[in-house]
């Protein structure tokens, strides 16, 4: 019966597997084909603009932060008061710049005074700004910005460390009457911003770069294949003017025989254009990756369903096996279970050269209990005795209901002497128990026959010897234990 149930279970699992995988493969294949057919339209009208929007949102969080910091510095009452007070105690401003740098994680922070032309840095006073020094041209460029423009963003060498390139946010500072008194700001390391761009590219599987309003490529990842400007980048030279005159637009162009989709967007606060590209091959590859991911997920779901089905079937199978091997009244094993357990215990006993004993237990005068109190009370007595037997046994011992009021106990790794002690303990426990039901007190006793397994002996032989010993216990007056030597 167990073998048939197992074969039925395997057949059901295989059919369920084929149906689920077949359905998932067909669904994923159709989805892939439909997506592939509308790929270009999907990329140009939906996917790429949406990706550009997402990247723009992240830029607002990541790259516009230094603009916000510089704005706070330019409006800071301390900076303006300190400048108007003739820049006394420079160490206070240096400490302030150091705190800004540490607090916001920038690579530099600075203030240049219009009055003294001193360049204050988080590490001290670095220099004096000179109008004939090409390295200081940025200051005079910022100073001459229209009043409507409060800041500029530019990429330059770090004044404090010429080996490092920095993205500067240079913010004009005015006194409380609106007079220009200097320039302040912070800087981000170009390398860290490039890593940020590469993170965007990895996250969205798109090419990302920036250009200023003149078309100069300002920031890009290390694997960028274009030129220094839009005007000298193959395929983009004809689109450069349209890109730089539109706040937001979508284009497509040919490069190396591939169709490239491009979305451009002006980052107003940063005064740069964000360009996000995707070639058709990347889109197809993503579709293919999605297809395989869907199949992988399908396999995972299939395995999960099969696992649940297997556990559920296993649960019912174990329940059926338990019903087939367990006595319904007492919960003890039945004869069929005893034979299987005996065979396994016998194999271990022979392998380990350990003893094994059996106890055959019978409730004395049980017929009179049924006659006086009825079969329901008789069943209650059998269950009570069964529970008392279980309470005295180990986990590896087996209690089996052998007949109506007869129980067989298998004791692995127990010799005859030890088995006798257990039988006596059980006998005394039952004899001392009083069963109260319907106002009556019922006292029962048991008789036991004990036998130890002999080498080459069959199961029925050792049980038969225990049965003979039990018969002798009955003949000798009941409520006793007799051993079979």
TrEMBL record:
It is found in: Cell membrane. GO terms for molecular function: diguanylate cyclase activity. GO terms for cellular component: plasma membrane. Its cofactor is Mg(2+). Gene3D superfamilies: 3.30.70.270, PAS domain (3.30.450.20). InterPro entries: dCache_1, Diguanylate_Cyclase, GGDEF_dom, Nucleotide_cyclase, Rev_trsase/Diguanyl_cyclase. It comes from the Bacteria. It is a multi-pass membrane protein. CDD domains: GGDEF (cd01949), PDC1_HK_sensor (cd18773). Its main location: membrane. The keyword Transmembrane helix applies. The chain crosses the membrane at residues 12-32, 291-313. It holds the Pfam family dCache_1. It is an enzyme of class 2 (transferase). Keywords: Cell membrane, Membrane, Transmembrane, Transmembrane helix. Its EC number is 2.7.7.65. Residues 354-485 form the GGDEF domain. One of its GO terms (biological process) is negative regulation of bacterial-type flagellum-dependent cell motility. NCBIfam families: GGDEF (TIGR00254). PANTHER family: DIGUANYLATE CYCLASE, REGULATORY COMPONENTS OF SENSORY TRANSDUCTION SYSTEM. This is diguanylate cyclase. It comes from Shewanella piezotolerans (strain WP3 / JCM 13877).
